[in-house]
């Protein structure tokens, strides 16, 4: 199936996709800041430039879009055009996310991932629940990897 947009229109659309300050990220930032948590944004010294870095808690939080990171949820749908390109792109993003998480965990950081589908879409959680889970993660002393969507796994898994 051919793309319905011209190359210039497609380029304009793609150029407007944000890599930071997205609505889900801003929601998490505002909620945690209002709760008294202070953080740095996208620290270039850390692998993967985490969205939120909490040095006091030695923890980082990533806010991932379900499409770009290939989350297995109702919000992720692989495009039908240029399927090979998108398969490779999403697989590359997933692989990079895994390498980044492993590097952070091995260097002693605790890692949380908030998925876009936890904030919008048919399976979203109540807004205060997402912030509550983030707060609980930050205040915990366990070195765990937590995905805020109800899935929790430890680093050893």
TrEMBL record:
GO molecular function: endonuclease activity
TM regions (residue ranges): none
Pfam family of the protein (one): Vsr
The UniProt record lists the keyword Nuclease: yes
Family matches, as InterPro entries: DNA_mismatch_endonuc_vsr, Restrct_endonuc-II-like
Record keywords, A-Z: DNA damage, DNA repair, Endonuclease, Hydrolase, Nuclease
Keyword set includes Nuclease: yes
Similarity comment text for this entry: Belongs to the Vsr family.
Stated name of the protein: Very short patch repair endonuclease
Organism: Rhodanobacter ginsengisoli
Lineage of the organism: Bacteria, Pseudomonadati, Pseudomonadota, Gammaproteobacteria, Lysobacterales
């Amino acid at each position: 199936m051919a793309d319905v947009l011209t190359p210039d229109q497609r380029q304009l659309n793609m150029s407007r996709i944000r890599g930071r300050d997205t609505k889900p990220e801003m929601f998490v930032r505002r909620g945690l800041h209002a709760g008294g948590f202070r953080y740095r944004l996208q620290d270039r010294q850390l692998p993967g430039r985490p969205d939120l870095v909490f040095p006091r808690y030695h923890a980082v939080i990533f806010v991932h879009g379900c499409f770009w990171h290939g989350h297995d949820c109702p919000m992720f749908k692989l495009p039908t055009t240029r399927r090979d390109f998108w398969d490779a792109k999403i697989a590359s993003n997933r692989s990079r996310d895994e390498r980044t998480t492993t590097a952070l965990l091995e260097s002693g950081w605790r890692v949380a991932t908030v998925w876009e589908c936890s904030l919008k879409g048919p399976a979203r959680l109540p807004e205060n629940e997402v912030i509550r889970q983030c707060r609980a993660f930050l205040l915990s002393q366990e070195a765990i990897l937590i995905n805020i969507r109800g899935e929790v796994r430890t680093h050893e898994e």
